Amino acid sequence: MPTVTDETTTVRTSDGVALVVEDVGQGDPIVLLHGFPDDRTMWDGVVPLLVAGGHRVIRYDQRSAGASDAPAGVGRYAADRIVADVLEVLDARGVTEPVTLVGHDWGAMISWMAAIAHPARFRRHVALSVGHPSSYRSAGLEQQRKGLYVLLFQVRGLPERLLLASDLRLARRFLRTHPRFEHVRAHVTRPGRLTAGIDWYRANLGALLTRRWGRCRVPTLGVFSTGDDYLTERQLVGSARYVDGEFAYVRLPGPGHWFPVEEPERTAELVLGWAAR
């Protein structure tokens, strides 16, 4: 029988970080990874639909986010460490079968890296907004222009001061299309939380630009929304070159970067369809 769960618990990682994990439903498991500056609640509209579709759904606040710990130190947010969090959460929840892995924003970058490094743990992969690391870095001048903020984030302390100044005026402009800005505001104004979130960028820019990323052997669905202010369609479409086996692509005309929040029904429909193949 499929595992039946309905609980929120804490998983402590091998490096001592407490991650708050929600595990609901029954059936083939789906794991949801959020990005910056979100937490697991960004999936609130999606989870009930996946559960109703016959799945066990695991989502958690990634390190630095929500109710999970935000350890100090850039090295605590290196991608390999965060990929290890995914596996440790699965192990702690007793999930031994391959799962469908879904990521958005930084969660999608981590989902690519996890699928590349540990293909046996994942039967299906859904990348929302963000493409394969090699495709992202080779996506051209328009992607570089849209990603200039990543360079600013490398300066220790400066982006935090700018984003928090004048009642978060710059943060409001930067996150102008975020449908849950007040929720984000409450999070990033907690002591140390904004620095911890930006440390993901500081810890991984060098590896993202220089590391030789492997090919993805997990069947992958890429989904891009045309209203995305931070990413280009090219970096996701181009991911097909780095996937061995099945790759599918869906273009959503209209919604912005946070389309899983704006259009949870459509997002759940795509995930359920891909998981069922």
Radius of gyration: 17 Å
What's the name of the CATH homologous superfamily?
Alpha/Beta hydrolase fold, catalytic domain
What is CATH's topology name?
Rossmann fold
- Tell me the total number of β-strands: 8
Tell me briefly what this model is.
This protein has 277 residues and is of the alpha/beta class. The protein contains twelve helices and eight strands.
Q: Which descriptors apply to this entry?
A:
Rossmann fold; alpha/beta; 12 helices; 22% strand; eight-stranded mixed β-sheet; 8 strands; 277 residues
3D architecture notes:
The chain is an alpha/beta fold. It is 41% helix and 22% strand. Strands 1-2-4-3-5-6-7-8 form an eight-stranded mixed beta sheet, sandwiched between helices. Strand 7, helix 10 and strand 8 (247-256) form a beta-alpha-beta unit. The longest helix has 18 residues, at 193-210. The protein is globular.
Topology:
Elements: E1 4-12, E2 18-26, E3 28-33, H1 47-52, E4 55-60, H2 79-92, E5 99-104, H3 106-117, E6 122-128, H4 133-137, H5 141-146, H6 148-152, H7 158-174, H8 181-188, H9 193-210, E7 220-227, H10 233-237, E8 247-256, H11 259-262, H12 264-276
